[in-house]
Write a structure and sequence with these properties.
Layout lengths: L5 E5 L4 H12 L3 E8 L6 H21 L3 E5 L1 H17 L6 H20 L4 E3 L5 E3 L6 E3 L17 H6 E2 L7 H11 L20 H5 L8 E5 L4 E5 L26 E7 L4 E6 L7 E12 L9 E6 L7 E9 L2 E11 L6 E6 L2 E13 L10
Parallel strand pairs: 1-2, 1-4, 2-3, 4-7, 8-11
Antiparallel strand pairs: 5-6, 6-17, 8-9, 10-11, 12-15, 12-17, 13-14, 13-16, 14-15, 16-17
């Protein structure tokens, strides 16, 4: 009987975690909520948003008549996630805080805290599924392909998956909102969060400038010629269009400009004109720091599909071992804006195999000399 198991749900104040708690209670589990505070600074707006989220979580807990715990993981988040990301930005790479937060906060710090409270399982409002027997759990795509969040969860191995429940695996977002409304949750129509994990929806460049010094340098076309000045390579990512301020070049009319490369040695930001310029395209990549859901990974070369970002359609690819801990991914079709520091996540049908951190891009042959000027 489910009533024998205590489940602590990470109540964020959002509609997804609220419905997850409701579903588990309906299934007979002994449900409790836990609101995580994972960021602290002197920004009054950020503080107000956190308090508003807590008020929403409290309303859900009161409606369900379940206990609501509150825990502060801000120190762990700063040390385990934020400081690591700052180091990556300074190195000219583009980290993904949301993936690291899931690995080290939501399914480590939160899980350990919940265990101390006597939890048998933890649950979140992630759109993903779990299948397979004990010791061979699989991370599965959610039914709602538009909301599927397995890209952000690929670092979860057998132990966290054995203790986790994802109640929204087979629900679409409109149905989740309908259930929240019928349950009496005031947040049923609350907008989805689109900001970086626990940092919020703010001007990211201005936020990052509080921690990383600007270091201006030239913006240079891959075809030659200085076009402007950047504020510091840490503040840009490959494929970026906004924030370059390159309008008004009478000798270069037409298509918009995109970041094609970061020349760290010379502090140059290389840009290309046109969304699909060859300098933006890559036929493959090398990646390290792999995490395999099954704990082992493929034994050799494997056909699979890959995603370079959340919600990207699956891209057919071939995975090949290079040396210990490093793999090469070759795409059937060239991919745009492969960014070192981001994750490549691999799938076999509905099953998320795992993923790694991109460290090197493989350019299309005609772009091999891009940036040499």
């Amino acid at each position: 009987m489910n009533s024998a198991f205590r489940v602590i749900v990470g109540l964020s104040g959002g509609v997804d975690s609220a419905v997850s708690a409701w579903l588990l209670r309906e299934q007979g589990y002994r449900v409790e909520g836990l609101f995580m505070k994972n960021w602290e600074d002197d920004d009054s707006t950020s503080h107000c948003n956190a308090e508003a989220d807590f008020a929403d979580a409290r309303q859900v807990a009161d409606t369900l008549d379940i206990p609501l715990h509150r825990a502060n993981f801000a120190s762990a988040y700063r040390e385990e996630v934020f400081e690591h990301c700052l180091g990556e930005f300074r190195a000219g790479r583009t980290p993904n805080p949301d993936i690291l937060c899931n690995q080290r906060i939501k399914f480590r710090a939160f899980l350990e805290y919940a265990e101390r409270l006597g939890a048998d399982y933890v649950a979140t409002g992630h759109y993903a599924g779990i299948g397979g027997p004990a010791g061979a759990h699989q991370l599965l795509r959610a039914s709602d392909r538009n909301k599927d969040q397995t890209y952000f969860l690929y670092t979860l191995g057998q132990e966290p998956l054995s203790r986790a429940i994802f109640p929204l695996a087979n629900l679409a977002k409109p149905e989740v909102r309908r259930l929240a409304d019928s349950a009496g949750f005031g947040n049923y129509d609350k907008p989805d969060s689109t900001g970086i994990c626990f940092i919020g929806e703010r001007d990211f460049r201005a936020f990052l400038a509080r921690y990383i010094s600007t270091s201006p340098g030239p913006i240079v076309s891959v075809d030659g010629g200085v076009l402007g000045e950047h504020v510091g390579l840490a503040f840009y990512t490959l494929g970026q269009r906004r924030g370059l301020h390159l309008g008004g070049h009478a000798d270069r009319p037409g298509l918009p400009w995109y970041v094609a490369e970061k020349d760290l040695e010379n502090n140059r930001l290389l840009v290309a004109q046109g969304h699909d310029h060859p300098a933006l395209m890559n036929i493959g990549l090398f990646a390290s720091d792999w995490h395999w859901v099954d704990g082992q990974g493929p034994m050799g070369e494997k056909r699979c599909t890959a995603r370079l970002r959340h919600r990207q359609p699956d891209q057919p690819a071939t995975l090949r071992p290079v040396n210990a801990g490093r793999w090469r991914v070759d795409f059937d079709t060239p991919q745009r804006a492969v960014a070192p520091g981001q994750s490549v996540v691999l799938y076999d049908g509905e099953v998320c195999l795992g993923g790694g951190i991109i460290d090197t891009r493989i350019p299309v042959p005609e772009a091999s000399a891009v940036g040499a000027a």
